[in-house]
Amino acid sequence: MVETANRIKSVEEYYFSKKLQEVRSLDSPDFPVINLGIGSPDLAPHPSVIRALNEASVHPDVHAYQSYRGIPELRKAIADYYTRYFQVDLNAETEILPLVGSKEGIMHITQAFVNPGEKVLVPNPGYPTYAAVSNLAQADINYYDLKEENNWQLDIASIEKMDLDDVKLFWLNSPHMPTGVQYPEEMLQKLVALAKKHHFLIVNDNPYSMILNQDYQSILSIEGASEVAIELNSLSKSHNMAGWRVGWCAGKKDIIDAILKVKSNMDSGMFKPLQLAAAEALKLGENWFENLNAVYLQRRSLAEQILNKLRCSFDKNQQGLFLWAKLPANISSSEELIDHLLYEYKVFLSPGFIFGTQGHGFIRISLCANENQFKMALYRLQNYQ
Ligand SMILES: Cc1ncc(COP(=O)(O)O)c(C=O)c1O
Asked: How far apart, in whole angstroms, are the C-alpha atoms of residue 208 and residue 177?
């Protein structure tokens, strides 16, 4: 085989891409694996969204290439959504760039702003894609630690002590996955001040804001933030549309234009009926989130029972689609526990180490399984010692 490029030597295949093959190999019709590992919503989008997709698809003029900037109806729906839920006014023409999910945005933003060898700051623990993409771009990755003793909050004083002068990007994820905390406004104000002082760009990755969260927040609502911050968001979790691949980036025109330069050379606009249906989803009222969160709340109480059975400790007030929990003192390896649960009980949870060194000693349970699956997992674990 032709030798692969150096840039992929520094990255591993995504943990779940490998582990799920192993999980599937253990699956059998009479004793299926209960997957409480991944955050892929199992619930359906609102019927009006499916209807919009179906109705639009029958028109003969919707099958051509679409604008690289997304269709105006989708950009307008995103702008209205930001006004309604985050009190942020965005120019729908210039300050919103629809994306094929927010994950692709992580690559586009990195390509647009980071030269090989330049510094990026990445949370530890955090979503593994920030580091993986930074590695692919041959960036210099510097981790900022989030610690249990600080309740996983940003430690602005420690961040300030890092050498920030050459930092290009600061990956922020609030509400944070996997720890389930949202950063208070004053903390974000301090971070924005640091970004202004040291001239770096904050990218807040915000896909969990609508899930089990009483206080919807966008970094763009912080005064002066839009000078130094942009936001990624998506319909994957908020509207049960992870497989549709619809997300966006929001921020100042010159920043969006730089990202568009990369995106327009890498992919084309999404299928028009999908964009129209996504716009329909964004128009759903508060009722949609109330119903969705009622389901997750119910599941969370079952997830808590599973964690109690495993003698793990956790904060009950986490935001987002997961519960992050600490292993009991007599278990040191999350990987060993996860494999024990998988092979003995056919219940799959995520080990904390995949989110970084600060995740050692922790596990993550996803709420993306139905109540019966949670109850079955509890039943299987009844004799767990
Ligand atoms: C923190 C975080 N950011 C981004 C993503 C990617 O989401 P999307 O489906 O919008 O690409 C995920 C998906 O799990 C995530 O957990």
From this structure: 8
